[in-house]
Amino acid sequence: MGARLAKTALFDQFARVGKALASGKRLELLDLLAQGERTVDALSRAADLGLTTASAHLQTLKQANLVETRRDGTKIYYRLAGGDVAALYALVRTVAHERLPDVGAAATAYLGPETESVTRDELLRRVEAGRAAVIDVRPAEEFAAGHIPGARSVPLDDLADLLADLPADQEIVAYCRGAYCVLAHEAVRLLRARGRQAVRLADGMLEWRLAALPVETADQAVFDVPSALRTRT
Amino acid sequence: MGARLAKTALFDQFARVGKALASGKRLELLDLLAQGERTVDALSRAADLGLTTASAHLQTLKQANLVETRRDGTKIYYRLAGGDVAALYALVRTVAHERLPDVGAAATAYLGPETESVTRDELLRRVEAGRAAVIDVRPAEEFAAGHIPGARSVPLDDLADLLADLPADQEIVAYCRGAYCVLAHEAVRLLRARGRQAVRLADGMLEWRLAALPVETADQAVFDVPSALRTRT
DNA sequence: ACACTATTCCACAGAAGATTGGAGAATGAT
DNA sequence: ATCATTCTCCAATCTTCTGTGGAATAGTGT
């Protein structure tokens, strides 16, 4: 009988998920989608892909059921299929960083010189003590899709203009998408260059959500994390 | 400047891990390695691959640093690089099962009709109450590499012969490699056909290890699971 | 119905990956 | 030394994936 065939078929099914994760561009798309839903056009520009190429990659992800779509007029919004997908993406990054020495180098090359950071716990502690103001330096749409409660939206592009609005007597904690997002690094560098006390959250919104910490949002949830997959503190 | 280039390079690094997971055969190899180290020859036979093909896949896994090797005479033993790799493999399977409807069908086709199962907690409870005897139906080498404390090694191939040795007044709980391993299913079917009270552990050694439950072993640990990645109960 | 926008589908060329057989390297046994 | 064992490396072939334009499709606004 075809026990061997059936086993191969089963593992080939598992591999569909692996194949979906087997491209840097698709991981980049998942990274963006972890922040909230987006149109094909927005994704193609954010990931620096041709429109048709982005569409093809999104189809690949969709065929693996890692993302879902919603139509609104002529636009099609893509979103993650669930928190398990976000957890899987995060674990791929973690394992890559743990196992591949080159990841450290590539991360430094992209993120620039290390900037001072605080953990999620430390951020909560400092905010509670009134010692820190939290700013979300991601684009405004991502802030709208969900942010750390009490954080103020200050997209990196606007940071220089809004400097005067930021409290001068408090430390500023900047955060962005996640552990490998460049925005908070640049925000801290800019703020420090202007003489402000600034640090960044060590990771970002992705990890915040995976830890099932409270999220403030205008509209619906981006994804919920199954309790079994929540980050342990 | 090359911010775009650096970002692409970083995500391509992450994708190295994804690419390693992008083949059913490689996932099958990881599945075997999660039970303990093995030689290339043993792996190629267990996964039904040509020797050179198996070697090539193992090289791919090794270049992604998901596995490590050890030489003993003319033989080369492969093993998982760490518990994080096991956790990643398990999560790929979980997400695949969660997201892809075909996985359920493929699993049933391979495993056969559903057999009654108990959870890890329930197993521990029944053993403590003296109501159940636990048998490990994996090949003897895998038992030697680590097993549930108190379990008896009864490889599936020997089960029919050893039937008389098994307690007739206790329920028998059979377990094997993990959630998609066929051995425990077949053991339960055989035992029931012979009129024994038998159930299987719902998953297996892989998930037992990921939950950081105690493991009894003659030699060294197969892998340790970082506390952040342990299964939540 | 017509123009317009957003996205997918199709066809192609080049790149990358899988499988196989045979040669070659490392080790152990005689 | 020589030979057997075990595995890796190499070359050839075949398949799959990726990126790109251009055509086709679905929906909006006039």
TrEMBL record, chains A, B:
Occurrences of domain HTH arsR-type (ranges): 6-100
Q: A Pfam family this protein belongs to?
A: HTH_5
Mind telling me which Gene3D superfamilies this protein's record contains? Rhodanese-like domain, Winged helix-like DNA-binding domain superfamily/Winged helix DNA-binding domain
Q: Does the keyword Transcription apply?
A: yes
Q: Record's InterPro entries?
A: ArsR-like_HTH, HTH_ArsR_DNA-bd_dom, Metal_resp_trans_reg, Rhodanese-like_dom, Rhodanese-like_dom_sf, Thiosulphate_STrfase_CS, WH-like_DNA-bd_sf, WH_DNA-bd_sf
Tell me which NCBIfam families the record gives: HTH_metalloreg
Q: Where is the Rhodanese domain?
A: 128-217
Under PANTHER family, the record lists: ARSENICAL RESISTANCE OPERON REPRESSOR ARSR-RELATED, HTH-TYPE TRANSCRIPTIONAL REGULATOR KMTR
Q: Name its species.
A: Actinokineospora xionganensis
Protein's recorded name: Metalloregulator ArsR/SmtB family transcription factor
**Glycoprotein among keywords:** no
What are the UniProt keywords, alphabetically? DNA-binding, Transcription, Transcription regulation
